[in-house]
Amino acid sequence: MFQQRVSLSVFPWAPQISISDLGHDENYDLFGEISPRGLSSESLKRLPRHVIEENPNGCGESTICTICLQDIEVGDTVRSLPRCSHTFHLVCVDKWLIKHVSCPMCRRDV
Fold this sequence. Notes:
Keywords: Membrane, Metal-binding, Zinc, Zinc-finger. The protein is of the alpha+beta class. Helices cover 15% and strands 16% of the residues.
């Protein structure tokens, strides 16, 4: 089995890490340390969510979830972020927020 060692020559104090040591579920920073994850499940539960009951724009134009690029339609469950009011499909934004603590559109903290 071929194993590659990664050394950050720009930062000689940084430890060598093996590519096989990096998991897909873990985020590492520049120094090989596990970086903080996104929101906890408790924090996600506290964020507002609702079901779309009428056309979001009210003028016949559709609103698009900028994560999956699909229309947000009547009957879809969505989450609107409190600080920026951006709205996304619930499933799409929750996947994002598990790994990030900011809005996927404007990067404002949630």
